[in-house]
User: What shape does this take?
Amino acid sequence: MATISIIGGGNLGTAIAQGLAKSKSAKASSLIITRRNLSKIEALKKEGFVLTTNNIEAVKKSRIILLCVQPKQLAGLLKEIEHALTVNHMLVSTITGVSTEEIASHIQKNVPVIRAMPNTAIAIGQSMTCLCAQSGSEKHLPEVEKLFSALGQTLVIEERLMKAATVLAASGIAFFMRYVRAATQGGIQMGFDSEEAQLIASQTAKGAASLLLSRESHPEIEIDKVTTPQGCTIAGLNEMEHQGLSSALIKGIITSFEKINSIKN
Assistant: This one.
């Protein structure tokens, strides 16, 4: 059975399904999406996806099962589908803050458990997805990594770093969006209309990230190529640092990390 079931057809679950189909990693007809209220994802049926409210049937027809529900729903879901699981299945969890050990504790069978932490850019095939495996399930990582590599960049990490990965990659989308918004506002103040300013800011941010990824260089190396003695770039950078730009970003990231560590599921 090569069929993939996505249990929980919310924003992330449907984005993964659409990304897999768009990248041709899987046919829409081989992707089963479950949700209690199908009316909210009815449009996906026209794209060829299989929709159902029956989690057990979805599991029986699949080999790879992506868990995309909320943390509070996990225990009930695993209790519901446990009797349908076999050692030939593989569970891939995208649930924030829930360890592989906790997931395995709800199952009385030796089912491989993998964790995947993508971000919302998965909808356009540009996710940063971090992966880890339950002890003993490492041999299944390459298959899952291949799956998510079609939807952006992947990185296999130790499970102890998964919460940090959530902050840096998933929450990080919002942090970078806030920079683009601020740059847009600056552009408007200088005379551009809002659409022009946002286009310039967004494409410039994309270009900066692409330079680092393609050249595998350090940000300061690329910064040095833009700054000239007594120039406008270094003047702006120094003022941003005087106002605490780097410090504020680091403090914000660490504050998010402290918060995710304090959340009790």
